Amino acid sequence: MSTTPPLLPDLTAFSAGDDSRIYDSFGAHLGADGVTFAVWAPEADFVSVKGEFNEWNDTANPLERREGGVWHGFVTGAKAGQKYKYRIGRGGMGWDKADPVGFLHEAAPGTASIITSLDYAWTDATWMKDRGAKQTLDAPISIYEMHLGSWRRVVEDANRSLGYREIAAPLVEHLKKHKFTHVEFMPLMEHPFYGSWGYEVTGYFAPAHRHGKPDDLMYLVDTLHAAGIAVIFDFVPAHFPGDAHGLVNFDGSHLYEHADPREGFHPEWNSYIPNYGRHEVRSFFVSAARFWIDRYHVDALRVDGVASMLYRDYGRNAGEWIPNKFGGRENLEAVELLKQLNTTLYLEHPGVQTMAEESTSWPLVSKPTYAGGLGFGFKWDMGWMHDTLEYLQEEPIYRRFHQNKLTFRSMYAYSEHFVLPLSHDEVVYGKGSLINKMPGDEWQKLANLRLLYSYMWAQPGKKMLFMGGELGQYKEWNHDASLDWHLAEVPGHAALGKTIERLNELYRDEKALHVKDADSGGFEWIDGSNAQQSVVVFLRRGETDKDVVLCAFNFTPQVQHAYRIGVPLSGGWREIFNSDALEYGGSGQGNLGGVEAAPLAWNGRRQSIVVTLPPLGAVYFEATGITEAEALVSDIVEGTREEADDKLP
């Protein structure tokens, strides 16, 4: 516990939009014999703090108005655990509000804030020092996205969700078993409506109390770090709800939101859009983002709804939006906020990452701000997700007419630093679960799903899978129910989990599969044009000519025997993965551990291999031979210059 009150708010920086640590001075801060309170309410005539320490008296503890509309004061005798609200008066009217910078709030339906300490004895110093190397563009990043409230529920105890502390051990066990490097939590900030999945935030500086208190969430993050797992939090600056105790009409004016609904109200989400052009609002949201990295040791933030922030006409018809000062549809103020947020986080916390959920063709989302970009580290590749799922939903006999959905990505795969997302959005609202998107009988559905994952893990870009995908869950995700954990005991579904384990293991261990995820030299087509047989073949390349993995995919249920593939190296090609292996629930068609290249030109290469492509299957081969250049040198050394001459172009 702090023994002295915090510094007074730096109103110059706050009012200029440059304060990225408002949580150090705003909100409720414990001192030796009381609590300091500070809140921004410039249009208020009167502000007091009421709570359990003064029997909820509206006038017992008035705050003093300072410049910039910040109200500040110290309440002797207030202590940790006590509930409080701000009483705000304007024009003879009065109302109660929760603390916008409160560190803990009552679980719904309560609306009070709670005085709390953010003290915690962290044990992750080594992780924090080294985490940057685990999140670089050339690192293997495999993300398990999850909704904490529905991952696993205690059915015998009124079907309640697990708390932050009790989920820590089973979650670590599950992530380690499946070899994920990161876990991404759907928003854990305070949100009164559980059905919003956390995306309607009222407490931007408080963990959702339904799962525990600040030190409980810190324990969860600390435990994940001890297991070598990085933590991503979803962050939602695109909109906020209209709950009466929240940010909307905070001081009797449109303080955080625009007054004009054409700018300040989101028609699709029935929520409010922040006024990104207001300096204090920028300080608020940049500080809210930094808070979770600073105080909760979060390793990355995934920013939700970036597309809705970038365009003034997002979700609106003609006449329902206001152009920017140049007459365009771009939200220039939101652009500046995102740039400031990213610049601040990367500057102040080296080693962290930010990720944008952005679904349009806005340029340079994941490029540095000094190069004209928005400054994110990564961007979700929504185009890949839509194209690939649409392709796999086709009956195999029709896939040959849609080959472009597999090949189009190569036109833009390195235009951004991408995360390939199979997220929660794809398994709700009647879209069906991943396995039920797949055509065919039960065996074919599972084979198609293994093929989808194998294709995803071979593509350049970081990987993300929503919980339940590893189980092959048939039901759509339901936030009121646990995952169908019994499927982990069903042979075909258990084998699907083993497939994920192996793919993550290969992605981690084979440099060719990750080191050039963001480098165009990491991908090379061998054959993307065989639409008739619905086959695609490509190489993933690492740091040397010999560091290559060949990835071949058969999107039909027919075994492709004696399939010839041109390769860049002579000698052996070892089969390191086969999605049709018996251990993964397949039919066992394969290549007996590997094949040898022969000096027969194919696919524009001097060497080729002949392989079996399993039904609805993927195979990866690792080169164990020598390059053509090495073979040429060997011929020269052995004195067979004539042979060498024949091999020269």
Explain the overall architecture.
The protein is α/β, with parallel strands linked by helices and 649 residues long. Among the domains are: 11-114, Immunoglobulin-like; 142-176 and 188-379, Glycosidases (TIM Barrel, Alpha-Beta Barrel), CATH 3.20.20.80; 521-633, Sandwich (Immunoglobulin-like). Helices cover 25% and strands 23% of the residues. Strand 1 and strand 2 form a beta hairpin. Helix 4 packs parallel to helix 5 (214-226), helix 7 (279-295) runs parallel beside helix 9 (332-348) and helix 15 (628-637) runs antiparallel to helix 16. The longest helix is centred in the last third of the chain and has 19 residues, at 491-509.
How are the SSEs placed, and which strands pair?
Blueprint: H1 11-16, E1 27-30, E2 34-40, E3 46-51, E4 64-66, E5 70-76, E6 83-90, E7 93-97, E8 113-114, H2 125-130, E9 142-146, H3 148-151, E10 153-154, E11 160-161, H4 164-178, E12 182-185, E13 189-190, E14 203-207, H5 214-226, E15 230-235, H6 261-264, E16 265-266, E17 271-272, H7 279-295, E18 300-303, H8 306-310, H9 332-348, E19 353-356, E20 378-380, H10 382-393, H11 404-407, E21 418-422, H12 434-437, H13 442-458, E22 462-466, H14 491-509, E23 523-530, E24 535-541, E25 548-554, E26 560-567, E27 569-570, E28 572-578, E29 594-596, E30 607-613, E31 617-623, E32 626-627, H15 628-637, H16 641-647
Parallel strand pairs: 9-12, 9-22, 12-15, 15-18, 18-19, 19-20, 20-21, 21-22
Antiparallel strand pairs: 1-2, 2-5, 3-6, 4-5, 6-7, 6-8, 10-11, 13-14, 16-17, 23-24, 24-25, 25-31, 26-30, 27-32, 28-29, 28-31
